[in-house]
Amino acid sequence: MALKIRRYTQLIAVDLIPFIEELKQNPPSIKGFSISRMEYLISLILTHKQKTHHGAWSLLYMQYLRNLVPQAEEYMNLLKERGIVQWRNHSVGRNSRLYRLKEEGRTEIRTITDHQQIRRIEQTYTNIHKRNSRKYPRLNKFIHQVRLDDIGAMRTVELTYQAGLLTDPASAESRRTYSIGEIGRIQADQIYIKCSATNGRLDSNFTRLPSELVRHLTIEDMSLSEIDIRNSQPFFAAAMMNPTSEIEGLMKRYLGRKLTRLAKSMQISECDDVKLYTSLVLAGSLYEFMMEKARKAGVLYRDRSDLKERLFVVFFGRKGSWRYDKIARVFQLEFPNVLAFFERIKQKDHRMLSIFLQRIESYTMLDKVTPAILNELPDQPFITKHDSILPGSVIIYAVSEIMLRVITEVTGMTPSISIKCPKSEEKIRA
Questions:
Q1: Closest to 373 measured CA to CA, from 406, 328, 349, 420
Q2: Which tens digits make up the pLDDT trace of 315-329?
Q3: Exposed end of the chain (fewer CB within 10 Å): N or C?
Q4: 109 three-class SS
């Protein structure tokens, strides 16, 4: 039976119930200590994960925690001393850390009944709303209009969880916890909108939402469909190898003129492996090609998602790190000039390539595709999800035509896209 998310809820780690009961009997010497505040901090760690997989870290800022729970640092120190929580410093700032539970297991949803805690939550998120990015005001308006069918979403979470238990129980548990946390924040109207200064991406609750839950979103009573670029990061990488004047301008702006000249001096666009790579990316079949090559080479992988994640060391890993994964070594054998190009971009800082690919993506989707849609389909609502556009289903094909046309104008190449229609759960390649 699906559980309904109420307005203010939190997740309880079932395995920690004995620890919580012990604290009730022997409370620590923390000023104003309460079990509900302790439980809420644990819930924050569970529901702010950066990724869905088992063992993923949650990024939390100490000032944010103090706003929600007075003496938050003392609670966290206690949890660490008792072996409940692990943390490590995060490079973005001195007052931010990555947290996770040392042992992560089954979770339960509970309604928050502490009225003081509820007031702190409301005040904190009121302040967060005030700090939301205003760079794309019309997109902000649409983001706030999105609604979630929480009953349907929770049903999907449980079905996904039950299926996952058959193959990878730990990952299934983590994905369930992550999904419940995201649903809870949307239903509590804890909507955040942030434009990254690093990569230009527009992030919101809906860019983090697991893909299986997108079909439960509506805007103005219309179901949202999803149009995404197939092989998007490899596609934008291909755009760098024979850049249009627009892409070259971005390269000079973000990579610098010297590195742009060095990259262009390789003149690899006519190499056979680069031509093959580009053709596969445009067809949206790079990962399928790699799956077949890995199989023939006797390299094992769990599924397409596993292969894709391991292959991304080529794009996002440190220079030379491809040598330590067999999937990445297969890529090197098939596409030596492509890999050499990536290594050239990463020569001083391996993050340069991944950040720049996201820069091309955000420039193309937010600064080019989005204005075109707003101009040609005025007042038709949609939201963005990095390399995807999520319009109301009645305009899905009009949006896809605009999207393909504009991307082609910017990059000089026409990508393959997939269209996912929520009601039929149909996925169409175009």
A1: 406
A2: 999 999 999 999 999
A3: N
A4: strand
**208, part of any domain:** no
**Residue 35 belongs to some domain of the structure:** yes
Contacts of 246 (CB under 8 A, 6+ apart): 410, 411
Residues 162 and 260 in one domain: no
Mean pLDDT, range 247-251, rounded to an integer: 96
3-class DSSP state of 218: strand
Kindly report, residue by residue over 6-35, the tens digit of the pLDDT: 468 899 999 999 999 999 999 999 999 999
Three-state DSSP at 417 gives strand
Share of the chain above pLDDT 90, in %: 76
Do residues 122 and 192 touch, judged by C-beta distance below 8 A? no
Q: What is the pLDDT of residues 197-210, one digit of tens each?
A: 999 999 999 999 99
With beta carbons less than 8 A apart as the criterion, state whether 68 and 44 touch: yes
* Cα–Cα distance measured from residue 308 to residue 345, given in angstroms and rounded to the nearest whole number: 21
Answer for the pair 99, 58: CB distance below 8 angstroms, yes or no.
yes
pTM (two decimals): 0.88
Residue 116: inside a domain: yes
- Judged on CB neighbours under 10 Å (0-12, 13-18, 19+), 167 is exposed
The DSSP code sequence of 38-103 is HHHHHHHHHH-BSSSSTT--EEEEHHHHHHHSTTHHHHHHHHHHTTSEEEEE-TT-TTEEEEEESS
Residue ranges making up the domain that contains 304: 222-430
Radius of gyration of the chain (CA): 23
H or E element at residue 174: helix 169-187
Where helices occur in 209-256 by DSSP H, the ranges are 232-241, 245-254
Q: How many domains in the chain?
A: 2
